[in-house]
Write a structure and sequence with these properties.
With 757 residues, the chain is α/β, with parallel strands linked by helices. It has 3 domains: 181 residues, Four Helix Bundle (Hemerythrin (Met), subunit A), CATH 1.20.120; 347 residues, paralog of FGE (formylglycine-generating enzyme) (Alpha-Beta Complex), CATH 3.90.1580.10; 201 residues, Vaccinia Virus protein VP39 (Rossmann fold, 3-Layer(aba) Sandwich), CATH 3.40.50.150. Helix content is 24%, strand content 17%. It contains 15 helices and 25 strands. Strands 21-18-17-22-23-25-24 form a 7-stranded mixed β-sheet. The chain has a 4-stranded mixed β-sheet with strand order 10-9-8-11, with no helix packed on it. Helix 2 packs antiparallel against helix 5 and helix 7 crosses helix 8.
Length: 757
């Protein structure tokens, strides 16, 4: 065991989450220590330090990133909340701030995964984690605690850091599980679940659920931490349906595999078949055969295959009861199973773990009427949830005895019949494995992002992510809450499985309570993303809703044409006027005119104007279509395009511009990699989900002698809100109304100028 990486104690026991209506400082400290210790304890399973620099999944970063990442996020969030006045290590808090969310299953490796990137030593990261631990304990000790802790409280940012680390406890466990088995070892105190419980689960009957109304969403006043996507409210009617009593087991899925399920195109969606051909999968990723199947590891592990059956004396069987395995499967099969740190006989009574595509193929193999449940149907399977009682005791994760494989009671799955069924008749709706559902990930009605983590959920409201529900064996904290809603891309591997469902509406077709995103999303380098539908719409009327990430509305082609008109089509337009104002402010700088960042750079007009004066210009924009257009204009020094009305337009950059000095980036918020600049300009507040989240960072990305300029081309943003947000770090030195031209004639821009205090 690699115990030298611990900055605290080895533990695999998880505390309950905090009751934020009455928690004490001691409870906050205990929960933080438990969170920090749990995460570090997971990494003691690596046999030596070299494993930290391996890529278990080619679409993820090396493990050293994730080991440091959670500590860096604490610092970054506490800086935003004002609970921390100084950074610990800006280099680390930039390097380890943001991971990757690959755009497709065949995405190329991130440059940091290819081996050329120089990562810090394990010792340096351990020292950093130790410094962060000590800093947070001091913050807890020194900061007055006002109860209840709410979403507006600075303490919310600290709890956010803890719950974020618990998410990575789970996702990092999946990565470690993907490492070669000889690179890991089972830590002291890690207990696997039993192989079976009672009689073998040979049948998985369908249980009927009567039509009923369900309510989704977490009340704002519920006294526990929640991620932004959990809040809001949706009431919907669930028509009669039936679903399997248990999640689909390895025993059930084996029949699909042995029937050639991975070889028959007719069972797979177009997207699923494309993934299957790329991955060359022949069975679930945590099953092992002897055929050398592609494993999907990255960098120097890219040629490695898990599918090498070990010698029988290294396989854990019923003889190894001290390891937590009892009564190993006697079924004869060529497949074995990769648990976290060991290869074992395929546990037939455990749930199968697979991605969405594999789950859908199994449903199709069963028959045309089978599908995955919807989110609302999953809630119906839970039975009465006591939705009106705003006490933590109404949430399963706060129970003294949890009747589910949740909260790290075991270090593996357990038999699907081990825990009692809900009053609706279903087992494992909470715990054991996450369950894929048919709904696209989206905010609930009333969704609003949090100012400390504006882009936690909203970038994934794109039709490319499906929801997973219920938590897994290693889910702790908010992840194990009944309100938890998470999502991954459909090809993603997690401790996730599924159960099957079938509608029972016998008369006229009914609208399924399954919400699919209808919004168009444009991704730089990919274009408009195809959003496939995996349910036969001729048989079922599906619910199509716009993304609750309203920023995606700006990815429409018609909107792009309007922005190009506003930025390039009018003399003395908003972008032109504001940029020229910023160029004039440079006379006040002591350090010259080296750099400027424009937040909300649109199609680039202001950035091009700024390039006349500033040596370096960074244009930051979240709209993929806008960024893509700005890059085209930059490359060709102009743009020719035909509008939807058939009219041709021409944009030309004259020689006064210096487009080579500009760097355009698509970002969903302001990360540390943006750097610090002589002048910071923000013009996109009326387009943002949460303007406060962006304004909180203006002071830190503005040089001490520089200025921040806040400008708006309309009156949507209330400028009275600026003072309390910015005045803690910045001083307003100028407020003015500036006329600019547009389609309605002369308009007025509101511009305020701020100096670092």
């Amino acid at each position: 065991m690699l115990t030298k990486i611990l900055t605290g104690q080895l533990t695999f026991t998880s505390l309950k989450p905090l009751d934020l209506s009455r928690c004490t400082k001691q409870q906050l400290q205990d929960y933080f220590i438990n969170t920090y210790d749990l995460y570090e304890s997971l990494f003691t399973s690596l046999k030596d330090e070299t494993a930290f620099y391996k890529c278990p999944d080619r679409l993820r970063l090396p493990l050293i990133f994730y080991f440091a990442h959670t500590a860096a996020v604490y610092v970054n969030k506490l800086m935003l909340a004002g609970m921390l006045k100084e950074r610990i290590n800006l280099e680390f808090e930039t390097m380890f701030e943001t991971g990757v969310d690959e755009m497709s299953w065949d995405d190329t490796e991130n440059y940091r995964m290819g081996g050329s990137y120089k990562w810090p030593s394990v010792d340096d990261v351990v020292a950093y984690r130790c410094s962060v631990r000590n800093m947070i304990l001091k913050v807890i000790e020194d900061t007055p605690l006002d109860l209840p802790v709410t979403m507006e409280s600075s303490w919310w940012a600290l709890v956010m850091g803890m719950e974020h680390e618990r998410i990575h406890l789970e996702t990092s466990s999946v990565l470690i599980r993907q490492l070669p088995v000889d690179m890991v070892t089972k830590p002291d105190g890690w207990v696997y679940g039993p192989i079976k419980c009672g009689e073998p689960v040979k049948d998985n009957p369908l249980v009927k659920v009567n039509g009923q109304e369900v309510t989704l969403g977490k009340p704002d006043s519920f006294p526990s931490y929640g991620w932004d996507n959990e809040y809001g409210e949706l009431k919907c009617f669930v028509p009669p349906f039936e679903a399997s009593k248990y999640p689909v087991t390895n025993h059930q899925f084996l029949k699909f595999v042995e029937d050639g399920g991975y070889l028959k195109k007719e069972f797979w969606s177009k997207e699923g078949w494309q993934w299957l051909q790329y991955r060359r999968a022949k069975h679930p990723t945590f099953w092992i055969c002897s055929e050398g199947c592609k494993s999907g590891c990255g960098s120097d592990l890219s040629t490695y295959s898990h599918c090498q059956l070990p010698s029988q004396d290294t396989v854990i069987t019923e003889k190894h009861e001290e390891s937590g395995f009892q009564n190993g499967s006697s079924s004869q099969t060529k497949y074995m199973y990769r648990a976290m740190f060991d290869v074992i006989a395929l546990p037939m009574n455990w749930p199968v773990e697979c991605n969405y595509h594999e789950a859908k193929a199994f449903c199709c193999w069963l028959g045309a009427d089978y599908r995955l449940p919807g989110e609302a149907e999953h809630h119906a399977m839970r039975g009465l949830q006591d939705s009106e009682r705003l006490e933590t005791s109404s949430d399963i994760i706060y129970n003294d005895k949890i009747e589910a494989n949740l909260n790290f009671q075991y270090g593996s799955s357990t038999p699907v019949n081990m825990y009692p069924a809900t009053e609706a008749g279903f087992c494992d709706v909470f715990g054991n494995i996450w369950e894929w559902v048919e709904d696209h990930f989206n905010g609930l009605p009333g969704f609003r992002s949090n100012k400390f983590y504006d882009d936690f959920s909203s970038p994934c409201f794109d039709g490319q992510h499906n929801i997973i529900l219920g938590g897994s064996w290693i889910s702790t904290g908010d992840e194990a809450s009944r309100f938890a809603r998470f999502a991954f891309r459909r090809h993603f591997f997690q401790h996730s499985g599924f159960r099957v469902a079938r509608s029972l509406a016998e008369n006229e077709p009914t609208k399924l309570p399954i919400r699919l995103i209808s919004s168009e999303v444009f991704v730089v380098g990919f274009g408009v993303q195809d959003v496939p539908e995996f349910i036969d719409e001729n048989k079922r009327d599906l619910i199509r809703v716009p993304s609750t990430n309203t920023q995606f509305a700006y990815d429409m082609r018609a909107v792009l044409e309007g922005i190009l008109d506003l930025e390039f089509g009018y003399r003395d337009g908003f972008a032109d006027v504001v940029a020229n104002l910023c160029n004039s402010y440079t006379r006040f700088f002591k350090t010259g005119t080296s750099s400027v960042v424009h937040l909300g750079s649109g199609t680039g007009r202001a950035a091009f104007e700024l390039s006349k004066v500033f040596n370096k210009v960074l244009g930051v924009e979240y709209s993929g279509r806008f960024v893509n257009t700005a890059l085209k204009i930059q490359k060709k020094h102009g743009l020719s395009f035909v509008c939807d009305d058939g009219e041709s337009r021409e944009i030309t950059l004259d020689e006064s511009y210096n487009p080579e000095s500009i760097d355009f980036k698509q970002l969903t918020w302001i990360p540390n990699e943006v750097g610090s600049h002589d002048l910071t300009l923000i013009t996109n507040m009326s387009r943002l989900l949460n303007p406060t989240a962006w304004l909180l960072r203006l002071w830190e990305i503005t040089q001490p002698d520089g200025i921040a300029v806040v400008a708006s081309d309309n009156c949507i943003w209330d400028y009275q809100k600026l003072q309390p947000i910015l005045s803690k770090k910045l001083k307003c030195v100028s407020t003015q109304e500036v006329p600019f031209g547009g389609p309605a004639g002369e308009n007025v821009a509101m511009v305020t100028v701020w100096k670092r205090i």
